[in-house]
Description:
Layout: E1 2-5, H1 11-22, H2 31-42, E2 46-53, E3 56-66, E4 76-84, H3 93-107, E5 113-115, H4 122-130
Parallel strand pairs: 4-5
Antiparallel strand pairs: 1-2, 2-3, 3-4
Amino acid sequence: MRVRNAEAGDLEGILKLYRSFTGFEMPEIDGDVMGVWHRILSTPDHHVLVAEEDGNVVSTCVVVIIPNLTHDQRPYAFIENVATDPDYRNRGFGTAVLTRAKEIAIANNCFKIMLMTGSKRDSVLNFYEHAGYNRHDKTGFIQWL
């Protein structure tokens, strides 16, 4: 297993993982999608992490470092879009990308990491709690636009 920052050629594998956890069709890789992808890759505080096995992207997460004026101006990290190929679950890949995300947060002197999930499944929520996250300290709200 290898965990690394995503590269330009990883887009198709990442979109395949997103499709597996959202159930939605992913966009066709066109100029607009490539523009967003290149913007993400060129933003220093936006990290797309991948775990690969035998050259295939099998797990991913996004961690964004957000500047902050509170807590002695220490930034915080935000994690989203955690996904692991169903054939590779329960083998440590998801834990590995979350561990790397935490290392990035620590290296950037973050005072906390926030993680959002749309899942209500106990197995997923227990996975995040086992990884050190809790669902009791704050309440998250979403307003879709």
